């Protein structure tokens, strides 16, 4: 392997999305990622379907699409960690790894002897990344945390959705589990930072990642809008609180997303729209004035955008450098010429279905690009291989572990 992280081993004890997402990123970059799962059931998301991956005849396999989204480039080892023999195996694996990812409740792994202090005793250089809903301390530390609930509690849903007074008004979650995804990204960054520190000092450490912390951090400009004014931002639908025009507009046959980022772009839009006078109107000449007079400007724009099709607007605005785009379905996304050119859909060989589609990593490194070595594994697909190769357990020892139900 020639990936940037091909010298690393990661023990992934996590399930569902945030932890597995971090593990998949590390695996894409070359790390050997060993996913430990419960015998018989495995990662919860294995059963989160339909939809399921189709086999060559078009029938459903038992591989849920949700599970497939976050477990590429991993090896699956099924170990019963509720049994002392299983716990001992995980400790031995941790001794051979650089990183552990886990997302059990606070203290959940301590009773199995798999918490940070226990694994640090067998591997002092270990980077141990805990991902929970609320972190290792604070009044909510013992609570379970799920993306949907954290989007609400962390303020994101108060900013998302149509404003009060409009049809369909009310708080709305994002269409993907975005807090899980961003937590997985932050966890990956923390792991890489801790590894760099270890390279300099030889010191391992415990990483405390919380979905709640990440969600609040990702409020970004909206958090600062509140912190600088003391006023909570309100839902604005697809409009932007600080930029106008920066939202959806109706066209003759659909919708157009217009994202005007500066006054020069607005002036060029006005020329294309046949209203150059708007750019000189003191109510609209600057972004600040446009924000202050959005209730006047936006209706004028809507009356104009409905006069052309989405394609006509896209062609005319792109020609003069005004940022805009259509509202694509996922079918249209993967058919888009840019998506095709960038290879955003890939196919990998799969033991149960022949092939499995996957979404390409967005990481583009000129010398050590992401690799697509392994499809998301079947449950326990690599138990024998990993325990034999990494721990040196012979065939007789493996047969005993299988027979006693410690592994599967």
Automatic annotation (TrEMBL):
Question: Does the record's keyword annotation contain Transferase?
Answer: yes
- Going by the entry's taxonomy, the superkingdom of the source organism is recorded as Bacteria
Sorted alphabetically, the keyword list is: Transferase
Which Gene3D superfamilies does the entry mention? Answer: Crotonobetainyl-coa:carnitine coa-transferase, domain 1, formyl-coa transferase, domain 3
Q: Where is this region: Disordered?
A: 351-378
Q: Which GO terms describe its molecular function?
A: CoA-transferase activity
Determine if NAD is one of this entry's keywords: no
Q: Which residues form the signal peptide?
A: none
InterPro entries with a match to the protein in the record: CoA-transferase_III_domain, CoA-Trfase_fam_III, CoA-Trfase_III_dom3_sf, CoA-Trfase_III_dom_1_sf
- State the protein's name: CoA transferase
- Source organism of this protein record: Alloalcanivorax marinus
